[in-house]
Model the fold of this input.
Amino acid sequence: MASKLEKAAEIYRSLGYEETDFDDILNLGIGSKEEQKEAREGLKSGDWTEIKQLSDNTYGFVSVVDVNLEKLAIFAIRVGVDAKRAANILRRSSEVALKAIKERGETFAMNFIQAACASNRRIWEHSLSVLGMLALKLVHEMNLEIPESVEYMKDWAAAAAILLTSKRKDYNFDDRFVIEKEEILRRFKEHIEAGVALNVPATGPFSDILIWGVQNNLIAKDTAMEQVFYGLSIAQRPGDRKEYVNVLEQIGITDEEIKSRVETIIPLLGLGETAILERFAPVLIESVTEDWLYTILISCSSAKVKKIKKLILKSVLKREKPKSVKEYEDWLTFYKQDEDKSIVKLAGSIEKAWGLEIEDEDIKEEVQGL
Done:
């Protein structure tokens, strides 16, 4: 008795798919309603390949039905398999696949994109996924909403980096099936906004494309800075925050623009990360009013690297002493207790310049909370 898959394959063959060129199969019919139902039942699940021994020492995947599986996948989409199944059975992007999916409508296309853009279908973390270009063309040609998917945005960034910059093509970039550069540009700003909101990794090509957008006047510098600071506030990985600081440098953030965002930056200083402290701390320490100084210095106490600790103390020495210096004794004692003698020396210089006299006794317990 023939399996459901074999019955589906028989219907597929009877409609002429096997002998028709791939590029022409959309001109073929999909059978009667009964045939469509039977074919869909046989194609909606299950494996189409299995591992077999090919020779004495060789094993490989072989088809469990004697048909062209690429054509069979298009037939399956046309007779109504769901979007997740369509993403699983398609092996590559093509104009034929694009048209077949578009015929299924917007909801199907959006569900397909969610399933197709997947981390396990990339060779490298930030490379184009196997069906990434197909997903991009669906969004742009059907004018779909930008999917709320980090994986889709990683595909967009990978493709944009290749099409808009000098980045070399990666393994999954097929010159025969490419979104037009003009299409990427048409919805460029939308994608940048979506990427930041979705917390797309800045360590990949996304940050390079953001910089490119500012440099080529597709995004205003002020708009880009707002987006980057938002990205900094929601980023989960130190590497992403470091990259966003680099983006700010590349788009030309000024000291005045840093000063104007003091409230936004203070929580970032408390993370203790070198890139953030190195760029923001000196500017703020040397220029903020006394109302902000203590809060900033306490946040900067999270610094772990000797170079940054010294940078903080040297910045303090560049400004006038505060009016209420006594409030800073515990903060300064924290540095006077440091294991590094050069940091202790700098703390002593501040103590002298501010006219403080901190007793050399063990008060570490008092400053543990700093």
Observations:
- The chain has a mean pLDDT of 93.
